[in-house]
Specification:
alpha/beta, four-stranded antiparallel sheet, seven-stranded mixed sheet, Aspartate Aminotransferase, domain 1, ArAA_b-elim_lyase/Thr_aldolase, Aromatic amino acid beta-eliminating lyase/threonine aldolase, binds pyridoxal-5'-phosphate, Aspartate Aminotransferase, domain 2, 2 domains
Length: 338
């Protein structure tokens, strides 16, 4: 059985694992003040050409989202997300459990536009309702689409004109930035969003995400907040060692490019067979629509999610490739499909 279920089926890239082994017996400061974390943060800042952002290394995506959103909002304030948004559907109400409602709006390709946000604002008029304050987006999105620079600029402008915080979940930011259709760079992001995170877990790290806080007013006391929410690891070095390895050279981008290349192969080959896709997703997640009988046969040899029923005889499946996906597995899948 070969799994195309997700991009965290494997452990860590060998270089990251080696770095953890090699640093194992060194004595380091705790709670993210070790030399590895400090150096990793320095490298990420250098990549962005920005020394004025705050970076915190956190263990996982849900943890990062709930930490950031609950720190940025006042008690009566709410987040806005696309109806497919991860915080809305797949985080067990983690944001709501911090006291903040998540307001959802239908967005066909999983991407929010100023018009979507305006619709939510227009429906929330006074103090008898929660106050929409933070716009949550992810790049790539839950359905594999990506934001281009113009779309982000428009969203950023709208958010700033309306005194909203723009927060980007980057669980799969590597894949988005390395997409053939992408026109954004990591260094563009501090200008475009108020905070975002760089996902490590789904891009070759054992665990870890790097939260980047760009807007000054959101930075204060964040470490207090982390500690109180149980997110400050005594052995924070584990995150530092990994991010240092990912950003000491191009490893982060190389791993994401590999994942994208494998998805592209699947997309191209299925496309040649006239297979339609549920959504345009130029990243490492694709959603081909297949006959149910064929899906059942493929399930004998491959693991993947059945994403949604399309009609009585067809369903969209989700195929996710990763930094570790083997080209032979992609070829075998295509051969079996044929
Ligand atoms: C876009 C996005 N955000 C956040 C998460 C949550 O990450 P974790 O499972 O590490 O909590 C995921 C996980 O699938 C995700 O896809």
């Amino acid at each position: 059985m070969y799994s195309f279920k997700n991009d965290y089926s494997e452990g860590a890239h060998p270089r990251i694992l080696n770095a953890l082994v090699e640093s194992n017996l060194e004595q380091e400061e705790g709670y993210g003040e070790d030399r590895y974390s400090l150096k990793a943060i320095e490298f990420i800042k250098e990549r962005m050409g920005r020394n004025d952002v705050d970076i915190h290394l956190v263990s996982g995506g849900t943890q990062t989202n709930l930490l950031a959103i609950s720190a940025f909002l006042r008690p009566h304030e709410a987040a806005i997300a696309a109806s497919t948004g991860h915080i809305l559907i797949h985080e067990t109400g983690a944001i709501e459990a911090t006291g903040h409602k998540v307001l959802s709006i239908e967005a066909e390709d999983g991407k929010l536009t100023p018009e979507h946000v305006k619709t939510v604002l227009d429906a929330h008029t006074d103090e008898h309702m929660v106050k929409p304050k933070l716009v949550y987006i992810s790049n790539s999105t839950e359905i594999g689409s990506i934001y281009n620079k113009t779309e982000l600029q428009q969203l950023r402008n709208f958010c700033h004109e309306n005194n909203l915080i723009l927060y980007m979940d980057g669980a799969r930011l590597g894949s988005a930035l390395c997409s053939a259709e992408n026109d954004l760079q990591l260094r563009d992001l501090p200008e475009l969003v108020d905070a975002f995170y760089i996902g490590g877990t789904k891009n070759g790290a054992l665990i870890g995400e790097a939260l980047v806080i760009c807007r000054d007013s959101l930075k204060e006391d964040f470490r207090f907040h982390m500690k109180q929410k149980g997110a400050m690891l005594a052995k924070g070095r584990i995150l530092g060692v990994q991010f240092l390895e990912l950003f000491r050279d191009n490893l982060f981008f190389e791993l994401a490019s590999h994942a994208n290349k494998m998805a592209e192969k699947l997309r191209d080959e299925l496309g040649k067979e006239n297979i339609q896709f549920l959504t345009h997703s130029p990243s490492n997640q694709i959603f081909p629509i297949l006959p149910n009988a064929l899906i059942t046969k493929l399930q004998d040899k491959y693991a993947f999610h059945i994403w949604e029923k399309v009609d009585s005889e067809h369903s969209a499946i989700r195929l996710v490739t990763s930094w570790a996906t083997k080209e032979e597995a992609v070829k075998a899948f295509i051969a079996d499909f044929k």
